[in-house]
Design a protein that fits this description.
225 residues; alpha+beta; Gyrase A, domain 2; Alpha-Beta Plaits; 12 strands; disordered N terminus
Length: 225
C-alpha cells in the first residue's frame, strides 16, 4: 500500500482518496498522462470484489488501442487472426487471437468494429506491439490512439454504471458497445465478461480518463466498489 509521503505523492489534476487509494500519474509522452491506482482496501477485499460488489481497473490504460482503418482493413485483420470476421457487424466486439507460425499465441484482445472499414484493437491485441511498417498493406492505416481503458466488473457493476451515466444500460448485450455520457463527457461503454460474469469497459481520450475514473469510483461508494 502506497502512502501519501511516498515518492509518488505528486500534485495531480484529480483528487486523491487518502482513505482508499493513491493514484500515480506520469507522462507516457509529451502531453499524455496515464493513471495507475494502487491498493484500495487490501488484497483480500480487492480479490473478492468481483464476487461481492465490483471493481474499477485502470491497469490496461496507457498503451492505447490500435486503430486499423482503410479499404483493406477487414482483409488485413482477417489475415492475422484465427477468428472469422464474416459475422462481425458494426457495433460489436470479438476476442481476437493472433497466432505465430508455431501455433503459439502471439497476441490476443478485444477488437471492435467501428465501421465497415474501421476496427480498433485493445490491450495488446492483434497486430501486437511489434508490427513492422513493411507488414502493413498500402490500403490500411494503423494508428495508436491515446485512450484510457477502464474495466468495471462484478455483481453491482451495472448499478454503478447506470448511476453514474443516469441511463439504462441494459440494452448493451455481451460483446456489444455504444456511447454514453458521464458528467456530460462522452465515453464508449462495452459489455465484456468472457467467463459469464457481469463486466464492462469504458473507453475514451486519455486526458478525460481521470475525471471518468473519479466519477465512477464516487458513484460506487455505496455499491461495494
Amino acid at each position: 500500500m502506497m502512502t501519501m509521503d511516498s515518492e509518488f505523492s505528486v500534485k495531480l489534476a484529480h483528487p486523491f482518496y487518502e482513505d482508499h487509494a493513491l493514484y500515480h500519474a506520469y507522462r507516457l509522452r509529451q502531453g499524455i498522462q496515464t493513471v495507475r491506482a494502487w491498493a484500495f482496501n487490501g488484497w483480500m477485499k480487492e480479490g473478492d470484489s468481483w464476487r461481492t460488489g465490483c471493481y474499477i481497473h485502470a491497469g490496461l490504460s496507457g498503451s492505447g488501442p490500435i486503430s486499423i482503418k482503410g479499404p483493406g482493413a477487414k482483409r488485413y485483420v482477417q489475415s492475422i487472426v484465427m477468428n472469422s470476421l464474416e459475422k462481425f457487424p458494426v457495433g460489436t466486439m470479438k476476442h481476437a487471437v493472433m497466432c505465430s507460425e508455431d501455433s503459439l499465441i502471439a497476441a490476443h484482445g478485444i477488437i471492435e468494429r467501428q465501421a465497415e472499414d474501421h476496427f480498433e484493437s485493445f490491450a495488446g491485441g492483434p497486430p501486437g506491439h511489434h508490427v513492422q511498417p513493411s507488414d502493413i498493406p498500402p490500403d490500411v492505416e494503423l494508428e495508436r490512439l491515446g485512450h484510457y481503458l477502464f474495466q468495471v466488473a462484478g455483481p453491482t457493476a451495472l448499478q454503478v454504471l447506470e448511476k453514474v451515466t443516469g441511463e439504462s444500460l441494459r440494452d448493451i448485450k455481451f460483446l456489444r458497445f455504444r456511447n454514453t455520457r458521464i458528467n456530460g463527457v462522452r465515453t464508449e461503454i462495452g459489455r465484456i465478461g468472457m467467463t459469464g460474469g457481469l463486466a464492462y469497459e469504458l473507453h475514451g481520450p486519455l486526458e478525460e480518463g481521470p475525471a471518468i475514473y473519479d466519477a465512477v469510483f464516487k458513484a460506487g461508494q455505496d455499491l461495494g466498489i
